[in-house]
Amino acid sequence: MRLTGIFVVLILMVGVLVFLTANLGQTVSITIPFGGAVYDSLNFHTVLIYTFSIGILLGFLFPIFLVFEFKMDKLRLERKLKKIQEELNNLRNVAIQEELEVEGVTEQNGKGIIQNETADDFDVAKPESY
After folding, report:
1. Between 92 and 109, where is the model more confident?
2. Higher pLDDT, 112 or 19
3. 3-state secondary structure of 93
4. pLDDT at residue 129, as a whole number
5. Which whole-number Å values give the CA distances from 74 to 14, 62, 87, 123, in the listed order?
6. Pick from 23, 21, 24, 17: which is nearest to 52 by CA?
7. SS3 breakdown of the chain: % helix, strand, coil, rounded to 5?
8. pLDDT for res 32
9. pTM of the entire structure?
10. Residue 114 CA: distances (Å) to CA of 44, 74, 98
């Protein structure tokens, strides 16, 4: 793919060179409609080179703005994703805590302690105060 792209560019460059050498001695006059400027007896190849140069510069400048816009969108979406992930983790933790409270198990020093109502539901030795 890369080799074919280089080949196409080379063919275009040769075509432009042939076109410019065929029209080497011609002059043109340019009238800019909105500014009212008139340029007489300009070399045709000079006009073509300037026109292509301006087109290339504009072709590089416009995508730069798009790249910045896409990066800003990416950053905005990453912040939104992080916020939603934190909210999801909080909701998961709330569901686990509610489930533990419903079963009567509370966390204390990393060990589950069984309260007196649900001690019969588990195969665990009852405390002596029972």
Report:
1. 92
2. 19
3. helix
4. 58
5. 41, 19, 20, 53
6. 17
7. 65, 15, 20
8. 83
9. 0.47
10. 94, 48, 15
CB count within 10 Å of CB 28 equals 14
Separation of alpha carbons 23 and 4, rounded Å: 29
Q: Map residue 104 onto helix, strand or coil.
A: coil
**Residue 84 banded pLDDT, cuts 50, 70, 90:** very high
The CA-CA-CA angle for residues 43, 49, 53, to 5°, reads 145
Name which of 63, 62, 23, 18 is nearest 43 in CA terms.
Answer: 23
Q: Is 106 helix (H, G, I), strand (E, B) or coil?
A: strand
- Please compute the mean of the pLDDT values over residues 17-24 and round it to a whole number: 86
Question: Phi/psi class of residue 105: alpha, beta or left (left: φ > 0; alpha: ψ in -120 to 50)?
Answer: beta
Question: For residue 45, which of 17, 70, 85 has the smallest C-alpha distance?
Answer: 17
Alpha-carbon distance of 97 to 77, in angstroms, equals 30
Tokens standing for residue 130: 């029972």
Q: Is the pLDDT of residue 16 over 90?
A: no
**Residue 61: what residue type?**
L
Q: What is the rounded average pLDDT of the residues 95-111?
A: 61
